[in-house]
Amino acid sequence: MYLKEIGITNFRNYKEDLSLVFSHGNNLFLGYNAQGKSNLLEAIYYLSLAHSFRGARDMDLINFEKDFFRLEGRIIKRDREQDICITYFRDRTKHFIIDGVKGKSLNDIIGQFTCVIFAPEHLQLVKGPPALRRKYLDTQISQIIPRYYQNLRDYKRIVRQRNEILKNRQEEHLPLWDNYLCKTGTKIIEARLRAVKKLSSMVKDSFFKISGENAVFEVDYCSTLGPLEYFLDEKSIFERYREKLTSKREMEFRTCATMVGPHRDDLLMLLDGKPLKDFGSQGQQRMAVISLKMAELNFIKTFTGEYPVFLLDDVMSELDSRRRKYVVDLLTQVQTFITGTDRGQFDEEFLEGVAIQNIRCGKIY
User: Which CATH superfamily is 124-304 part of?
Assistant: First the structure.
């Protein structure tokens, strides 16, 4: 899979209609900070999941002088062209068009175009908060199981509503919302468990290739429901979920918050069976993050049959020369979009086969 062309209208600092044709190999965009490099990658990513990888609200993506933004992408997938168009208006309406046909919902576009983003904040995957690791899992699962993304949206809505019930001490309404919570949460947990099982072997192989160490890097799922022995199938997860909710009832009324579920789970990262964040060196932690990103590429390919597009947002400057070389060596297999401030961050041998463009004040040349 690769992105052949993109059209950008009124997105971030791109005020004028912008049309770009890309190499199906490596594409490098150079420029000073705050010129629009990350905005370009954000536009590409938006075509995949219809939201910003930086956590920005859709409203904030519209150029402040305009009333809407539009993104149009032409994708080559299994040797066939596919057109995707997403338009968002200030009245909060969002339109999806796929090959000229209007989509009915977000589910119609999720999974049509897959991509993986590697940005400096991902270097905090090991030591950062659990929310970062949950997002790492959720993003890749959503791209291969479009319904999963809808389950996440439904689950967040259920948690908000249930927290309001706890806050108002409306205990008579809890059985209904407990059932909604357990049904949707079980689907999320079950999908995450399957994904982690597949990822664990992938990150182990990647870490060994990067580090050359005999140390074993693994990932494991840590749930508020308890040890993995409870997770035999959806039925056992659901039953355990209800038991845990009942046991936490008084605490939930005191805190006015739902204490159990996938919104509080974590992805454990272990080096030789010990928590990487506590016992791994900074170098080992960075190698682990690269392993996770390489695994993400391979994970999506396993299910779709094609590598996703790889976006590297000013991350090369955060890596030493050895790890930069490892990442660059892998780029021959996928279409990449790389941003940087200086050609000096890249070997001349690599630059020979790269389509290079400059970005300045929202203009690309």
Answer: RecF/RecN/SMC, N-terminal domain (1.20.1050.90)
